[in-house]
Amino acid sequence: MKRIIIIVGVILFFGFLFSPPVQGGKLTSWYGIRLSGLGGFWHPGTDIGHYVGAPVTSVGTGTVTRTGNEETGRGLFIDISHYGVFQSRYYHLDSIAVAAGEKVGHKTQIGTVGNTGFSTGPHLHYEIRLIGIPLPPHLITRPGIIVNMFR
Known about the structure:
Elements: H1 2-14, E1 26-29, E2 32-36, E3 39-43, E4 46-49, E5 55-57, E6 62-70, E7 75-82, E8 86-96, E9 103-104, E10 109-113, E11 123-130, E12 133-135, H2 137-140, H3 144-147
Antiparallel strand pairs: 1-4, 2-3, 4-11, 5-10, 6-7, 6-9, 7-8, 8-10, 8-11, 11-12
């Protein structure tokens, strides 16, 4: 119980520090169980449909830990470490504007939305993790990520 209270407190506190990774777009897939023609599976992030080339920004100040290209999965991707305990992940990018080891500021452009890897259309797959554990991005990111997605 104590662990749950700490995690909820961290989410509420840090939720004010993270901002949406894209402006506009449309929420196309939530965090959690996802059903598809291939069955159900766990989706550890949020998918935001957007046009190819839309700017993707860092949700907070941090250090880029990995970038790469995984043609059969994530496509072009970026992982960023924040405050020593959080990680943000950005998948299916069209371009990457940062390198591993680089420090990035809050809302710094790090890449652009794409349709790379295992993707059914242009979108950004966005994850937030706490010590490696996926969290629902809509709970830890400023409300703009939800409000803007239903337009």
